[in-house]
Design goal:
This is Regulatory protein. By secondary structure, the protein is an all-alpha fold. Helix content is 52%, strand content 0%.
Length: 159
């Protein structure tokens, strides 16, 4: 059956509501549930997350309000960003709150120099940066927020 592309959820059956943000991006993309599932699986394999096996019923559950575990939100953000030629943040998809503590968002994880350079390089690619003039919401918080600055300071100047 597969379909365990992030089988755990953060929503319970009593507080789950349709994810209107994800639904809006999904409808505008023109993708079918099957096509989105195939693209998620393809990207997951590229990232080495071979345990992910998303199917149409999993996509339907996300649209119905189920919150997938990482790396699914990040994969969806990348796929929609590529599809629309602009940055579509995870928060824009309604998959997690915009203000998470560093330990929840993963920013507090130990970073190595080469990984950090690769991440910043990827994030600042010219094709993604072109569409940022009108995009100030979460990208501004990402580039200027204390959740990024403080861990970087601890990384650069260890105690």
């Amino acid at each position: 059956m597969g379909g365990n592309g992030g089988s755990g959820t953060t929503a319970t059956s009593t507080d789950k509501r349709p994810n209107e943000l994800l639904g809006s991006w999904f409808v505008r993309s023109g993708w079918s549930k099957g096509e989105l599932a195939r693209q998620v699986n393809r990207r997951a394999r590229q990232l080495g997350a071979n345990h992910i096996s998303t199917d149409t019923s999993r996509v339907r559950r996300w649209l119905d309000g189920e919150n997938p575990r990482e790396p699914i939100p990040r994969i969806l953000s990348e796929l929609f960003s590529e599809r629309f030629g602009c940055v579509v943040a995870v928060e824009d998809l309604g998959l997690r709150t915009a203000h998470q503590s560093p330990s929840v968002s993963g920013i507090d994880l130990p970073w190595t120099g080469p990984q950090t350079v690769a991440l910043i390089s990827e994030f600042s690619r010219s094709d993604l940066m072109l569409a940022r003039r009108g995009f100030l919401g979460t990208s501004l918080a990402l580039s200027a927020g204390s959740s990024l600055i403080e861990p970087m300071q601890r990384w650069l100047v260890p105690s």
